[in-house]
Write a structure and sequence with these properties.
This protein is mostly beta strands. The protein is 5% helix and 35% strand. The longest helix has 15 residues.
Length: 389
């Protein structure tokens, strides 16, 4: 028994020695990135609350065993750029566990989510949530800190039994808290940057008009619809949004036709470029900025605006995938080819991440007192951004 215990400690030490004392953001993709939402759960009430979160193993920024000595939450920045006063005192306990439950199979019953290594690392501690100064940009520092009374080892069960690595569970049990608002950074949504790319010359427009503009939704979620928006097009003009997987490389896979690729011969704009010779006519000043894998079609309204919507494939594998889009609009008066194009627009699938929360508020001071809840409400894709030490 003693030799087995020493073997486990040795294996754990080899896996975590380089990580002790280094803070790590969970989910890993949120390192330096605001969570896209904020929530008053569990700290924005005067009631007691049981609050569990499951992070699937693919969201963790480490592999193998790791010794944890504390956990910190990030305050919200999206809706609380002004100063937030401190809130205290709260009586809080914190439980850490691995779990075979995932973000999609999390049980509403709190104890059903515990693994065999579940342990209360903070017990009935009096805590004051720190004041947050006004901030211009996010994310805020993860300064809502809970130091463990005893270290907790993630990942020892696979070492001892050969099981696959399991998911991470955190439960924050607020036994009591005073009245007061306090929001934390949350994964209820996500914001994807949508930078432009490629070429668009001023003459790629209807005479006297503005160049076509392509914009995109601020949130791109796996398994959800996503829209690209066209503006400055001719009234009632049909359009196509070309969607590809890259903004570099060669048109039609040909390195001799590098992107962005002109829809005219730069040496003689009155004729088409080599790759588009079959079209017979040029579109001076217009460029192809993507090698399209698919097309979404639509029609503009009388103001020259239109929207094309596509469905993003479901599944965690889609998160982090970047799509590159460009609009092409019918414009008979613009050039001999009767087509004008926009700059490209880049969008990355930013969620939902493999996280879920389970929570239940209750009031032990009510008449009659409300009992400690055994089960709560499970919400997929929602949970706090944290740092572990």
């Amino acid at each position: 028994m003693r030799s087995e215990f020493l073997r486990v400690l040795s294996a754990a030490g080899c896996g975590v020695a380089g990580l002790l004392g280094q803070a790590a953001t969970v989910p890993a993709t949120m390192d330096g990135v605001e969570g896209g939402g904020g929530t008053s759960i569990p700290f924005g009430s005067n009631q007691s609350c049981r609050y569990q979160v499951v992070y699937d193993v693919e969201e963790l920024p480490w592999t193998g065993p790791r010794i944890l000595t504390g956990v910190s939450l990030r305050p919200d920045q999206n809706t609380t750029t002004g100063a937030t006063p401190a809130k205290g005192y709260l009586e809080i306990s914190v439980l850490m566990s691995t779990t075979s439950r995932s973000s999609t199979t999390m049980s509403p019953t709190f104890t059903e989510n515990y693994g065999t290594d579940a342990i209360w690392v903070v017990q009935n501690q009096q805590v004051q949530l720190p004041a947050q100064p006004a901030a211009a940009t996010g994310p805020r520092p993860a300064n809502i800190h809970f130091a463990f009374s005893v270290p907790w080892a993630y990942g020892l069960t696979p070492v001892t039994s050969g099981e696959p690595e399991q998911n991470l569970l955190i439960e924050i049990w607020i036994h009591s808290q005073p009245t007061g608002a306090y929001r934390i950074d949350n994964l209820s949504g996500c914001i994807t940057p949508t930078p432009s790319f490629g070429n668009q010359d001023p003459q790629c427009a209807v005479p006297g008009g503005m160049p076509v503009v392509l914009t995109a939704d601020a949130t791109m979620l796996a398994g959800s619809s996503y829209a690209w928006h066209v503006a400055n097009a001719p009234a009632n003009a049909p359009f196509t949004v070309m969607v590809g997987a890259a903004s570099t490389g060669g048109l039609l896979g040909n390195p001799a036709w590098p992107l962005p690729y002109p829809m005219f011969d730069p040496a003689n704009p009155s004729v088409p470029s080599a790759a588009l010779a079959a079209l017979l006519w040029p579109a001076p000043g217009c460029w192809l900025n993507v090698d399209p894998l698919g097309w979404l079609s639509g029609a503009c309204d009388a103001s020259g605006s239109g929207t094309a919507t596509g469905l993003i494939p479901a599944g965690r594998a889609s998160v982090g995938v970047t799509l590159f889009a460009q609009a092409m609009v019918l414009a008979p008066t613009a050039n001999p080819l009767h087509l004008i194009t926009s700059l490209g627009r880049e969008s990355t699938v930013c969620g939902p991440l493999s996280v879920a929360r389970n929570f239940a508020f209750y009031d032990p001071a009510a008449t009659p007192p409300q009992p400690v809840p055994a089960a709560g409400t499970v919400q997929y894709g929602i949970g706090p951004v944290i740092e572990v030490q």
